Amino acid sequence: MTSTEHSDVPGGGQLSGTAPPPRPTVTRCGLTYGAGAMAAANRGDRLMWALHRAALMFGVIPAMPAMACAEGWRQAGENAEATRHACEWFAAGIEVESLTAASARLLGELGLSAGVHDPVAVAVVECAARRGHATVTGRSAALADVASALGHDLVAHAI
Description:
Elements: E1 31-33, H1 35-42, H2 46-57, E2 63-65, H3 66-77, H4 81-91, E3 95-97, H5 101-114, H6 119-131, E4 134-137, H7 140-150, E5 156-158
Parallel strand pairs: 1-4, 2-3, 4-5
């Protein structure tokens, strides 16, 4: 039976026309967190914790640029001491990507060439693009703008 033959179609089993071409899909094999992911974990967002837990259960260690992690900790510092413990648990299950002099220069040059003035957003998009990851963030629109300026096809999950 070919892709256009169906046994339940009257008149010989042929559908008129041809099958539509396959739709291209964008797949990602990991997660890169923005500062909003840590903020969501800090405020006890159930969706964020479920996603994080599922990733770890399936052996996916999410990445987070050091600049985004620093911003997440800054935001957590604005909250009560008890809620900051959530960030400690969250941070224990991620790979914080270090910021070297070379990577800082690259991010600065990318931001300059793209006309983007938010180095944290540039760091998150660049990390996701390089690793082939989807992003999890509270600022998906801002990251989409950065990704567009950098020519990256971003897959973003808003938290």
